[in-house]
Design goal:
Blueprint (H helix, E strand, L loop, with lengths): L2 H13 L9 H8 L26 H25 L11 H20 L26 H19 L7 H34 L7 E6 L6 E7 L3 E9 L3 E5 L4 E2 L5 H9 L1 H9 L3 E8 L2 E8 L12 E6 L9 E6 L6
Antiparallel strand pairs: 1-2, 2-3, 3-4, 3-5, 6-7, 7-8, 8-9
Length: 336
């Protein structure tokens, strides 16, 4: 998920009562809720899609990162004490509670990242398997609103010393938990409904069905059907009965073209994209100047060159020296 969502979850956990367990409790929760995204530091070194949501989202980091954060929080508090700049209103910093809050914030990050279609490698480096929740859109406005209002209201109650300042934050956590459960069930029911509809119409069973959440509208899902060598796109809307619409066009994946393997062998950007991609498809164009390869992911566009993610390579014609020039067609949005 986006970092605003992670930050709001950390703040809601804090106002729900956890921040009072130790000095700098709120800061600990908000920082740890974003900490796994430290992998963005790989971007200047050319590490993007294949690097993200890997090591820093795996079991080793789950153990190590909270310990590092705890050491930093305690050191910061002691540094302010030495400089006599420590706020007098701050409670005593308890290292044990700081460590526990760090774990809670970091786990909240992993849970949120699991919920979208991007994927997360929860077992890195022991396994490179991607896990997908296919539940929430990567930027969920409703989650922002619920947590944003609750955090503001709890902060207001705390500032004015009103009774039950934790109540809005706790209510928001319960509402979001219910919202996530409903959205997860709706996605799986939608996928089952699509399979049943196809079977009733006499169509062959698709290899995979994906019901992706969309921006703003929790009652709509984007449908992606995978056959042996093609994709079919559509939508399903709960109004309240499921209404399925499939587009008539069948989009070939073209992933069996030998130019794809050539591009992946010779260019790290292509290999990284294919490693990350879940539903890859390609456009391959040949002319007298060479072979143009554009690869996208059907989760995020209905053509390889569409959507926020695609990579492009120019290959020499077969039989000529394999010198490749490439460019990234669209840079991925980071910080999610």
């Amino acid at each position: 998920m986006d970092n605003l969502a992670h930050t709001l979850v950390g703040a809601a956990l804090g106002y729900a009562g956890l921040k009072s367990r130790t000095g700098l409790g709120m800061a600990t929760l908000m920082i740890s809720a974003n900490l796994p995204d430290i992998d963005v530091l790989g971007i200047p070194f050319g590490e993007t899609l294949a690097w993200r949501r890997g090591w820093t989202h795996g079991p080793i980091s789950l153990v190590v990162l909270p310990i590092i954060l705890t050491a930093c929080v305690v050191a910061y508090d002691r540094w302010q004490i030495r400089r006599r700049t420590r706020p007098s209103t701050r409670g005593f910093v308890r290292a044990g509670w700081v460590l526990l809050l760090s774990y809670i914030g970091l786990i909240s990050h992993l849970l949120l990242d699991y919920l979208n279609t991007w994927g997360i490698r929860l077992l890195m480096p022991f396994s490179e398997r991607w896990f997908y929740g296919d539940t929430l859109f990567i930027v969920d406005i409703w989650l922002w609103l619920i947590f944003g209002i609750a955090v503001w209201y709890s902060a207001k109650r705390t500032k004015h010393q009103e009774p039950n300042p934790s109540y809005p934050a706790r209510t928001a956590l319960l509402l979001v938990t219910a919202y996530i459960a409903v959205m997860y069930a709706a996605g799986r029911i939608a996928e089952l409904h699509v399979r049943n509809e196809l079977s009733a119409a006499g169509h062959s069973e698709p290899l995979r069905v994906l019901a992706s959440p969309v921006l703003l509208d929790p009652l709509r899902r984007q449908i992606l059907l995978e056959t042996k060598d093609s994709y079919i796109f559509g939508t399903i809307v709960w109004t309240p009965d499921a209404r399925l619409t499939l587009e008539p066009e069948v989009v070939p994946t073209n992933m069996d073209d030998d130019a794809i393997a050539r591009a992946a062998r010779q260019e790290k950007t292509i290999a990284d994209f294919l490693y990350w991609s879940r539903y890859p498809f390609a456009t391959v164009r040949r002319d007298v100047e060479g072979i143009e390869v554009i690869i996208g992911d059907a989760r995020y566009g209905r053509r390889p060159q569409d959507g926020p993610f695609s990579v492009r390579a120019i290959l020499p014609l077969e039989g000529t020296p394999d010198r490749i020039s490439r460019e990234t067609a669209k840079q991925p949005a980071e910080g999610n």
